[in-house]
Amino acid sequence: MTFQVWSAYVAAVVIMMITPGPSQLLMMSNSMANGFRRSLATAAGDLSANVLQMLAAGIGLGAVILASEHAFTVIKWMGAAYLVWMGIGRIRKAGRGGTRSAERAGLGTLWLQGFVTSAANPRAVVFFAALFPQFISMHSAFWPQFLILSVTYIVIDGAFLSAYGSGAAWIVARLGAVARTWLDRVSGGFLVAAGIVLGLKSVAR
């Protein structure tokens, strides 16, 4: 893989990530509710699912998932419902009082939320299976190139998640405790929006 090919890949991934999706919306929501540092567990969960999805794409499971439309639909809607349920719960709890620290979710819960949100989009396997071959040379060993593309994607994705999360946390810090009720509503709204976005996603045909 040449530097020019890798640069083109980086540019393609960055362009695709500019618009926030379900994982980015979840990251923003958890950063607003739990603080940026704790929300990094959400990013870790998301990236963990990405690693498994890329491995699945690498061993050829993309075609299997694409063929299993029923399984895809069930997994997708379960993930979407989970996000909407969390969002509605957060909106309903807005303004009920209590300290910020008491309302914070555990790191394991934050990791699981990130993992489920990403894993609930099996189309990602198909996406990786379609994207990677565009930048892999048939004249070089497959797995080293696959590793480079995978690590690059994880780094870029992690950077975007961190940027969205830190931005949301910065807004919370500037608004202060006075706006806590509205922050809960906004973060809950992000979760509901993430569920809707995930539900609207369909397998490209």
Share of β-strand residues: under 5%
Mean pLDDT: 78
| Number of helical segments with 4 or more residues | 10
The SSE string, one letter per element, is HHHHHHHHHH
Identify the overall geometry. globular
First-residue to last-residue Cα separation: 29 Å
**Strand segment count:** 0
| Structural class based on helices, strands and sheet pairing | mainly alpha
Tally of discrete structural domains: 1
- Describe the main β-sheet briefly: none
Spatial extent as radius of gyration: 18 Å
Q: Fraction of residues in helices?
A: over 70%
Which spans of ≥5 residues are poorly predicted at pLDDT below 50? 97-102
What does this structure look like?
It is a single chain. The chain has 205 residues and is mainly alpha-helical. The chain has one domain (30-200). 80% of the residues lie in helices and 0% in strands. The protein is built from ten helices and no strands. The chain has helices at residues 3-17, 22-34, 36-58, 62-67, 69-93, 100-103, 107-119, 123-131, 142-175, 180-200. It is globular and about 60 Å long.
Indicate the topology.
Blueprint: H1 3-17, H2 22-34, H3 36-58, H4 62-67, H5 69-93, H6 100-103, H7 107-119, H8 123-131, H9 142-175, H10 180-200
Helix pairs in contact: 1-9, 2-3, 2-7, 2-9, 2-10, 3-7, 3-8, 3-9, 5-7, 5-10
